[in-house]
Amino acid sequence: MCGIVGYIGSQNAVPLLMEGLFRLEYRGYDSAGIAVMTSRGNQVCRRVGRVRELEAALPRRLTGRAGIGHTRWATHGAVTQENAHPQVSEDGRISVVHNGIIDNATDLREVLIGKGETFSSETDTEVVAHLIARSSAGSLEDAVLDALGQITGTYAFAVTDADHPDRIVVARNGSPLILGVGDREMFVASDLSALVRHTTSAVHLDDGELATVTAGGFRTFSREQENTAKKPVRIDLEAQDVDLSGYRHFMRKEILEQPASAERMLRGRLDERFGTARLDGLNLSPRELRGFRRVKMLGCGSAYYVGQVGAQLIEELARMPADAEPASEFRYRNPVIEPDTLYVAVSQSGETADTAFAVREVKRKGGQVVGLVNVVGSTIARECDGGIYLHAGPEIAVASTKALTHMALGFALLALALGRVRDLSITDGQRVAAGLRALPGQIGRVLADEAAIAEVAVGLAAASSLFFIGRVRGFPVAREGAQKFKEVTYRHAEAYQASELKHGPLALIDENLPTVAIVPDDELTDRNLAAIEQIGARGGRVVLVTHPGVPHCARGSARITVPKSERELDPILLTIPVQLLAYHAARTLGLDIDKPRNLAKSVTVE
Ligand code: F6R
To answer: Catalytic: 115?
Structure first.
């Protein structure tokens, strides 16, 4: 969703701000803009559409040593140039970029209009620019604090003032904000990827924290104006992690990275001798792990589907009741939080608002929540009591792939740890640990079949509607397959349990509606094949995603096989082909694969 960049130092801010905005493009946005402190005062340029359109519209010879920039995802007000950020005070002095939502903006706007202010946009952010400009405080910091005292909602702000061009003031409450520390220069960003190439030293602001950023450094402080003395941390992000490195799309790059990233994620975490996992970051002793009676996964979208994979792994390996629930629904049903339930928040970005709210709901009611999170230092990672970092590396494509594989690996490790302090035998633990160890190589073998999978995808791209079916371990894979397919191809794709077909959806089957069937070699193979027979008998085409041991089925019109892993781990390998099917179908259709329409990488609003 929205992205923030800022720069202050001795270089020209304009190319640095633009580079940051290009790096933030992957988050999803509909307009972009920058405000630069020039020798002729504050200059603002905004455009609807892509960052490259903004770049083309910049006045020639626009230079300045400080500035802020933004990619906007419309929430308050339509997608127009007037509503793009930076928003500016009536006198043109104050510029504000903002991620988040001001809840009382409508009321404040009315009060300000009553006082004679004129608004030029429909945004909640413009209200803040007016409030800061109207403040009688002597410093920009005090004026920002004045404004914060009047607003409610979530925000990350960066503010410049033409009267104080030596500083950018920033504030955070509920939306991420990071300072990048350079040599006599400073950066501001909502996302680490905007800082790459410029600094390896960053400061994550906390909710309720502000900072004054100057060319010479920074000062962090609280709403009560007490210094918070934040120390920079090292960021391990290389340019190639966030660059295409010769690939045409990030989605394919990230799919192909999985063997190496999975290997890295497992390194040092598998204890094959005792058939368990080393998960120090959980901050839970074996005794505490034994004390839990139930496990609940909370995540959104694909992270929720992979939570279902996790629940099955935990039920199978630890024999504990476990389930997954969409975090977006959780807190609205006033959930009963049980002290002996382990809650697991799962998120790639660590910034998904719905998941963060679910974490807070659990904590408010005294529950214990750990995180499976990819982005180090993100909101969810910091708010959880402990967790497992996914170490998938940056994921830029909006459609998640490698991070989901890492979530499933994280759940497998957690299931091993929970199982081995219960009834999971050492031999079964060792069997699963060895299975995990073999997975990166096996993922590589699936990827080696990319060309054949791409051919199948070309056939699927022609259909306007598809089913994905599976049972038990195969069902979350089917859900993820349908999700990925619809996200990047804009085709209607729906997942069903294969067992449910005959209870309704079978009515839709004909030669125009293909089905992707997830058929592992397990105790349900025959039943899955029986469902495929029913589809074939009605003229439906079927693509089987299956194991080599599964008999050839006359009705299957195409067959993609993945190596057999330990049965509990089957969903992990079976998911790889459905990622490739979605990618290659979207490529056949010539779509904007990395930035599907209407979607954002990190959904930081409810
Ligand atoms: C699907 C997808 C989304 C995310 C969901 C949660 O490809 O990317 O469904 O899985 O928005 O995002 P995170 O994992 O960042 O919390």
So the answer is: no
